[in-house]
Amino acid sequence: MTASDATRRSLHGIAELLLAGPQYRASTEIALRVTADGFATTAEPDLRFDGVAVVHGDRRVAVAGLSYADVADGLGVVAGRPQDLYPDGSNARPADVISLDPAAVRALVAAFVAGDEALRRFAPEERPVLWPEHFDVGITVGDVNYGLAPGDDQLPEPYAYVGPHTPRTGEFWNMPFGAAKPLHAFADVAAIVAFFETGRRLAAAAPADDKNH
Fold first, then answer.
1. Which of 74, 102, 130 delimits the end of a domain?
2. CB < 8 Å & 24+ apart, contacts of 116-121
3. Segment 142-197, tens digit of pLDDT
4. Which of 105, 139, 135, 107 is nearest to 121 (CA)?
5. Which among 48, 71, 98, 143 is least buried, having the fewest CB atoms inside 10 angstroms?
6. Are residues 204 and 108 part of one domain?
């Protein structure tokens, strides 16, 4: 496993076990939000990851090298994923040790920040959500999902995606769930917005008639 892979999995575990889980148990809410240097809860308790540590009130615990349970103890919360809500997730356990490469953290946080900004420009009326299940920031407009994922088994690097609820056909739709394009292929945030706009235009066509690309 590369440093980037290990970092992505650990960040996913932080989002799920140290933020979304405690938030769900306190507020029945799992939605997280992207911040300038990491990500945070959207309801109580107020928890955030700042690129190095998780912060809760006046408590700040640097996470690298500690288990999720150790970090939670230092914050005064209980580590654990939201229970019985979804089948997938980070697969992290409270006893697992967090492994973070600083450069990989900065790159993934920058990817989320770019994705969040692009989504807000694309659909200003929507609030982007960082979901703990797949660890992607996204929105749904009509019957189409738009977002930024940090990488996975299908595409092991950050990528922007468009996912119609009903499958589409055509050259643009290059993934089983819809369309994806690696973040490194975009010149700037405006280019990500243009990708979303193209996806919206093509998704508006009837599935059988979508021959555009």
1. 102
2. 116/34, 116/148, 117/189, 118/148, 118/160, 118/189, 118/192, 118/193, 118/196, 119/146, 119/147, 119/148, 119/196, 121/189, 121/190, 121/193
3. 999 999 999 998 899 999 999 999 989 999 999 999 999 999 999 999 999 999 99
4. 139
5. 143
6. yes
